[in-house]
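A reminder from the course coordinator: this example appears on the midterm review sheet, so study it carefully.

Given structure:
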């Protein structure tokens, strides 16, 4: 018996793995997990004990990755057995590779390939695509009077759902057991390969599971009536809840926002929608849901429909890229969306290292740091007609040019012939007669990306093939640019701080060289930041030809990022450009999450007005209007909220931050447990004590409770600092100071 389809999902079973193909077909494959241990690291007694307890032990040869060594391949019955075996040896190699990934590596099986499975053996027979799979998009409303729904106690009011092109439907009832049962029926009837939401792992699905259990209902959203199972994983410094749905890829786009959009203050669905130009409804905060359920139920359900449409449109923009990342890294869709960038590179190391016969060593601790990119500002000011030049894939290109890779920089003695490479006061020994793994991977990927971009040039912007190619080139860009950071990442199996430091030093060397060349040409360099140079003094025609002229003089590739009409520079890492009427900014308070929205809106508008050439008096007048709203209390609670993510457990805090105090208040006054990674919305209330000691969760307080005098002081600090900076850089003078308006 054989099965054929697009492979997109894998699950571990007691005897191996289960491969899921589009349309609900699955195949059980027997496979046993294993790790390696260098034979010369074991004494005779340990080896005998290992052989007696393992399913089997095989002798093999591999590279460490510098030299050939003898290894024992230790095979366990399952992952629990493998954990017991690993405790018997001093250092298990490749132990961190899970069973499902080990199987894909050994089978050379890429996600989204078309697969035929015969007699339990899979083989790739063609290319598959995300469009070959059926997706279901959903969101839900959970009832809570205070904005902190409690699993098991807070009912599921409604679920909105849609497939790829179907209109959104809403399930709603006063009896949430009926809502849950109907949603289970919808999933069973539609039978999607992929279920997509935003934040559902720690929110909607978690509450559905708890309420289903309360009602005696099994949350069988999986194929073959499989129940949803909750797990967790460490991701970018926090523990993320993960819901596994048997036979289906559960894609929580919050994980994508967290990894791929670090500049978003709260990583919310509506911030992501704005970032990607997706039309969305105005968000309804959790603490408003109960009120709207009672006063405007139809409006709330209409909002839910619009939110599901926004989630579907977000997925349309994001998931093709994730599918291509899955192909590159051999991590299926559910896994790749929850993998940090360093983990994606680690997967590349496993794939390509295996082809070289490498056995990947355990992580090594290296405490030393290194100097990063070069940042320089000529002087604060407002400049006109700014050309922003960007080094294209700077660090990967340097790694290719100088053969930089974890195994080639300061290599083990006798591995290769070496030559010294020096830059910015740093000298390292680098292999001259062995091509580095990272240099080879980066070269192949950049060549492939260039070919894809050439193919895209002849296609219409809305062509399906162009969108597919764009997703591929973006995936290549992500993993290629992450390779430099991986070498300095403390979680990397092949961490080599020497290699990372040399790459960074060469980056500083080349960017300073470009600055020198531009100055010799008569252009004025005003700002440099790591892999970009900003200049003035040229004409539009000159700017358009500048990259080609530079590329003849330096061994790296430089592109024209954009030409800004005006630019405002206050300090290093704090500037704003006006590009085709749009503000592109870096470092300002209005980009951060630790300032309330009303202050951020006031500053952003002031900066935009300055870039538009408006006089200072007009800017001050507009700022004063914002201040008056605060002074008179004509604001909403949402205007006053600070956002803070708990980076650790409350008991691990060494000082009273706003997040710590608000979290303690929740536990002590409401019995609500808070956890590491939780996002808190905080207001500062009236009363005694320091500012931080008066931090409270916004959900339980109103504008009348808030200390507007404190907010006014903070407003004045930020805006006086901003206006002073605008005056200092030459914005046309108007009235002196804010006091004339305040």
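Designed residues:
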């Amino acid at each position: 018996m054989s099965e054929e389809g697009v492979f997109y999902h894998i699950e571990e079973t007691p005897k191996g793995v289960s491969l899921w193909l589009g349309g609900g077909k699955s195949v059980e494959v027997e496979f046993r997990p294993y790790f390696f241990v260098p034979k010369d690291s074991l004494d005779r007694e340990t080896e005998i004990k290992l052989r007696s307890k393992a399913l089997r032990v095989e002798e093999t040869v591999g590279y460490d990755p510098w030299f050939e060594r003898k290894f024992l391949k230790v095979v366990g019955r399952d992952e629990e057995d493998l954990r017991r075996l690993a405790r018997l040896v001093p250092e298990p190699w490749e132990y961190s590779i899970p069973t499902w990934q080990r199987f894909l590596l050994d089978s050379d099986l890429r996600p989204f390939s078309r697969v035929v499975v015969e007699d339990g053996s899979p083989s790739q027979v063609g290319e598959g695509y995300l469009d070959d799979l059926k997706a279901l998009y959903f969101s839900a409303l959970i009832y809570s009077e205070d904005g902190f729904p409690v699993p098991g106690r807070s009912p599921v009011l409604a679920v909105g759902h849609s497939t790829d092109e179907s209109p959104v439907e809403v399930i709603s009832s006063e009896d949430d057991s009926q809502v849950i049962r109907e949603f289970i029926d919808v999933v069973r009837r539609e039978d999607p390969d992929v279920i997509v939401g935003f934040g559902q792992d720690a929110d909607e699905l978690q509450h559905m599971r708890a309420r289903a259990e309360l009602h005696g209902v099994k949350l069988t959203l999986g194929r073959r009536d499989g129940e949803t199972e909750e797990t967790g994983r460490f991701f970018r410094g926090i523990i993320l809840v993960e819901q596994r749905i048997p036979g289906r890829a559960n894609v929580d786009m919050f994980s994508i926002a967290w990894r791929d959009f670090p500049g978003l203050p709260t990583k919310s669905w509506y911030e992501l929608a704005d970032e990607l130009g997706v039309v969305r409804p105005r968000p309804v905060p959790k603490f408003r849901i109960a009120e709207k359920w009672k006063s405007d139920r139809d409006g709330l359900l209409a909002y839910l429909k619009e939110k599901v449409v926004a989630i579907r449109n977000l997925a349309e923009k994001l998931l093709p890229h994730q599918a291509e990342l899955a192909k590159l890294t051999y991590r299926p869709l559910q896994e790749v969306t929850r993998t940090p960038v360093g983990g994606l590179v680690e997967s590349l190391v496993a794939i390509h290292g295996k082809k070289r016969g490498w056995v990947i060593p355990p992580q090594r601790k290296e405490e030393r740091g290194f100097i990063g990119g070069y940042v320089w500002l000529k002087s604060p000011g407002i400049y006109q007609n700014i050309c922003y030049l960007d080094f294209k894939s700077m660090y990967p290109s340097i790694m290719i040019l100088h053969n930089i890779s974890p195994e080639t920089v300061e290599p083990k003695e006798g591995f290769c012939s070496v030559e010294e490479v020096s830059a910015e006061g740093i000298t390292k020994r680098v292999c001259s007669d062995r091509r580095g793994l990272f240099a080879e991977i980066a070269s192949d990927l950049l060549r492939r990306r260039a070919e894809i971009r050439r193919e895209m040039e002849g296609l219409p912007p809305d062509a399906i093939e162009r969108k597919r190619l764009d997703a591929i080139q973006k995936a290549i860009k992500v993993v290629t640019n992450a390779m430099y950071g991986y070498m300095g990442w403390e979680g990397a199996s092949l961490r080599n701080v020497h290699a990372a430091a040399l790459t960074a030093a060469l980056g500083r060397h080349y960017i300073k060289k470009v600055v020198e060349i531009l100055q010799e040409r008569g252009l004025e360099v005003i700002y440099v930041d790591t892999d970009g140079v900003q200049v003035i003094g040229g004409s539009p025609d000159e700017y358009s030809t500048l990259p080609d002229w530079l590329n003849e003089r330096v061994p790296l590739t430089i592109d024209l990022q954009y030409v800004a009409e005006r630019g405002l520079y206050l300090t290093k890492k704090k500037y704003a450009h006006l590009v085709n009427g749009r503000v592109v900014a870096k470092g300002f308070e209005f980009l951060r999450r630790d300032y309330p929205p009303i202050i951020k809106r006031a500053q952003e508008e002031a900066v935009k007005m300055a870039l538009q050439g408006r006089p200072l008096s007009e800017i001050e007048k507009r700022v004063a209007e914002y201040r008056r709203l605060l002074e008179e209390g004509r604001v909403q609670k949402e205007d006053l909220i600070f956002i803070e993510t708990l980076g650790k457990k409350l008991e691990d805090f060494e000082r009273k931050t706003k997040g710590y105090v608000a979290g303690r208040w929740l536990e002590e006054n409401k019995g609500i447990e808070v956890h590491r990674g939780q996002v808190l919305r905080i207001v500062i209330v009236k009363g005694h004590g320091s500012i931080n000691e008066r931090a409270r969760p916004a959900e339980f307080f109103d504008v009348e409770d808030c200390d507007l005098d404190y907010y006014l002081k903070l407003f004045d600090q930020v805006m006086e600092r901003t206006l002073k900076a605008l005056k200092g850089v030459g914005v046309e003078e108007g009235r002196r100071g804010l006091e004339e308006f305040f």
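The domain at 592-728 is CATH 1.10.132.60 (Topoisomerase I; Chain A, domain 4). The chain is about 40% helix and 25% strand.
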